Amino acid sequence: MTQVLAQSMLLVGESGVGKTHYGAQLLKRLLNSKGRFRMDGAASNLEPFEATMESLNNGRSAAHTPTSTYVDSEWPISNKKGLTFTLVWPDYGGEQIKKLLATRKIPSTWRARVENSSAWMLMLRLQQLRVSDDLLSKPLARLAEEEAADPPSDEPIQPSDQARMIELLQILLYLRGKGVGDATNIPQLCLLLSCWDELGQSDPPEEVLKRQLPMLSDFITSNWKHPIILGLSALERPLDKSVPDEEYVTRGPEHFGYIVLPDASTTQDLTYPLTALLDPSEENS
Fold first, then answer.
1. Is the pTM higher than 0.85?
2. Using an 8 Å Cβ cutoff, are 130 and 160 in contact?
3. How does strand 266-267 pair with strand 258-260?
4. Residues 180-228: pLDDT tens digits?
5. Which of 67-81, 128-142, 148-162 has the highest mean pLDDT?
């Protein structure tokens, strides 16, 4: 009898990073056996992805997931070695992450998902992240000069987006009972830099992360021994919500999208991050 391993992957990402588009494209790959993993049984709760898949079939982008939505979809999958897994793939409104950070109150459902997850996948869209100047980018003397010339207002100072992402990871580690710097028995982390086609980058994803979000990059590499940092273009090109892309309609959305590997090469196998998280021995095979 084949052993089934329950892998509950915590997918973390704010609104606009492409969680649902990637989920729909990944689901298509699994259903069509186009990748290192395939669907190996009946999946549950596919409703959140069906509308997105229909939009992509018509060459259009899908609407954002409503804020209040959180649905766990269970996908029985297997790889080429015959190993089978039950992958729990969530779909939720990304505004929940912003609320979690703003209130620092963790709903019981989120707490359970963090505690029970076997792997974490954090999706970031670098184009929409605000990186404020701080002591890392400006020396104290220069900050003092600018403050004297332009006194600060009474408005509350907002942390940069990379500082918020660090705080998010700190919260997740805390919920797992692990402190910062404790790399023992924590879920593997895969960082996906989404909408890669919009970045115009040819460097490896890890180098792009170091250059654009140095503080976050240092935090990740300090707390995870072997973090997985990849680029993702789930759609390969921007799609309009109302005007269909005829090539998408003709060829099918399963022929679009790619992953940028650590060496900056690309693969159209959108299941690659699952391989890296669930069965790392298969990465180079």
1. no
2. yes
3. antiparallel
4. 656 567 888 999 999 999 998 899 999 999 999 999 999 999 999 889 9
5. 67-81
At 99-129, the pLDDT tens digits run: 888 888 888 878 888 888 888 999 999 988 8
The arrangement of strands across the sheet holding 258-260 comes to: 37-39, 70-79, 84-92, 4-12, 119-124, 188-193, 228-233, 258-260, 266-267
Q: Which residue has the tokens 């939505």?
A: 69
Q: Return the ∠ at Cα 47 (arms to 42 and 51), rounded to 5°.
A: 125
Instruction: Find residue 76's DSSP bridge partners.
Output: 86
- Please say whether the beta carbons of 4 and 85 come within 8 A: yes
Contacts of 217 (CB under 8 A, 6+ apart): 206, 209, 210
Angle at 67 between CA 61 and CA 73, to 5 degrees: 75
Extended strands (E) in 125-239: 188-193, 228-233
Domain extents in the chain: 4-280
CATH topology of domain 4-280: Rossmann fold (3.40.50)
